[in-house]
């Protein structure tokens, strides 16, 4: 009996302290594995967001740049049809014959006399003074999806493209509108001048315009301090409708600020955000 008792005691299990230490080590290992897994998952999500927004931004940027290069193309110069109608921070309206139709239809061709075109900052509107002859359409590139002429918080979440990014409440959609009847969304997920509450976002304008000076140097519209860039309130410069200024525009900088449709897993800012841009030189804006 003594030998048996000695045998049992000599094969006793782990002490309570040893058991607690072992469990603690195991928990630490499991926590490290779980943390590594979650970190890898976050990296994967962020990479996916980057691919999504870069692809989306590039498609929109290429479309806009291609269209802007056509400003003034085949317009009725003889009768004074302007190349540009309005140059605003997040909207540009111009004439160009995108379709090059020999016999324009009601949808493809110049708007008839007395047609009224809404502008970026509201009345007065632009009224077509005559029926031009070359078939150049009136094209609008804008964030104004509500079709009231303004770009504001009412243009958020009011189109199919904007509602498709349901997890991002502030993004807008770039619209190409030809005359009054042809509307084509170019890209969504774009941040505009105001968020859904009406507060300014302070981002760079979608369009920045450079005019040529008599000495062939360039001036940036809205650049009040002359430092060659738009800052603060300069980014909300008033829309230009004066032909004496519009005819001097020779270059447009395009900047798209695009956000992800889902939240950024790392940053405190809710959504992943990038900017892409390019410059378009204009050849047909003067008379």
TrEMBL record:
InterPro entries in alphabetical order: N_methyl_site
TM regions (residue ranges): 12-38
Keywords tagged on the record: Membrane, Transmembrane, Transmembrane helix
Protein name as catalogued: Prepilin-type cleavage/methylation domain-containing protein
Highest classification ranks of the organism: Bacteria, candidate division KSB3
């Amino acid at each position: 009996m003594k030998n048996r008792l000695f045998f049992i005691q000599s094969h006793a299990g782990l002490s309570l302290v040893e058991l607690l230490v072992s469990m603690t080590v195991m928990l630490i290992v499991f926590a490290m594995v779980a943390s590594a897994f979650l970190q890898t998952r976050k990296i994967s999500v962020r990479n996916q967001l980057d691919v999504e927004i870069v692809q989306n931004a590039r498609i929109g940027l290429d479309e806009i740049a291609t269209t802007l290069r056509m400003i003034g193309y085949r317009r009725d110069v003889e009768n004074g049809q302007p190349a540009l109608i309005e140059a605003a921070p997040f909207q540009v309206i111009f004439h160009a014959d995108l379709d090059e139709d020999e016999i324009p239809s009601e949808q493809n061709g110049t708007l008839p006399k007395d047609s009224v075109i809404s502008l970026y900052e509201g009345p007065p509107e632009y009224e077509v003074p005559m029926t031009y002859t070359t078939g150049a359409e009136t094209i609008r590139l804008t964030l104004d999806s509500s079709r009231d002429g303004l770009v504001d918080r009412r243009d958020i979440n009011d189109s199919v493209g904007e509602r498709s990014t349901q997890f991002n409440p502030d993004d807008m959609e770039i619209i190409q509108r030809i005359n009054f009847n042809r509307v084509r969304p170019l890209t969504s997920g774009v941040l505009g001048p105001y968020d859904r509450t009406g507060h300014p976002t302070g981002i760079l304008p979608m369009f920045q315009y450079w005019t040529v000076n008599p000495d062939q140097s360039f001036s940036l519209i809205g650049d009040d301090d002359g430092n060659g860039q738009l800052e603060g309130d300069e980014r909300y410069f008033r829309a230009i409708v004066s032909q004496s200024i519009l005819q001097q525009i020779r270059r447009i900088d395009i900047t798209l600020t695009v956000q992800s449709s889902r939240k950024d897993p790392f940053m405190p800012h809710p959504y992943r955000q990038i900017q892409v841009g390019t410059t378009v030189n204009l050849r047909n804006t003067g008379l």
